Amino acid sequence: MGVIDDAPARKPRGPRRGQAPQEQDGLPGASVSWRSSARRQAGLLHWLFQWGVLILMFGKELAKSVHDVVLNVVTPGRVTESAIVEIPLEVESDLGIALLANMVTLTPGTTTLHVSDDRKRMYAHVMNYSDTVVDDIKHGFEHQILKVLR
User: Fold this and answer.
1) How confident is the model over 47-72, as pLDDT tens digits?
2) Domain ranges of the chain
3) Using H for helix, E for strand and C for coil, what is the string for the chain?
């Protein structure tokens, strides 16, 4: 006669701290869902894509600004009006503000002057002022920076 085990069946537990995950179905680490891994990879690809968009956007704006500055140097009467503008900020992190300020400064014809103490406004000097300058910065660089830093 065999031995009868009256003990209740136990649920298998996951690995303890410091232990590797147990194999299931012959695959190491198969206890981790392949879906979560795919989501992480998709998130990483999305993040890299957004950085690529930001870099290409900056390159495009840089080329346009260089062209504009060269035309201003060749034909000095072309500069219509320079101004100091206030840019309300949506980006809140130190990295985001620094990135935006540096992108504005590195674009020829614009220079970041100051970020307010409450970090809600940034001031910049623009060589060719137009009514769309602030919107161009907000809906261009800042919008893409917010996407990258999410």
Assistant:
1) 899 999 999 999 998 898 888 888 88
2) 34-148
3) CCCCCCCCCCCCCCCCCCCCCCCECCECCCCCCHHHHHHHHHHHHHHHHHHHHHHHHHHHHHHHHHHHHHHHHHCHHHCCCCEEEEEECCCCCHHHHHHHHHHHHHCCCEEEEEECCCCCEEEEEECCCCCCHHHHHHHHHHHHHHHHCC
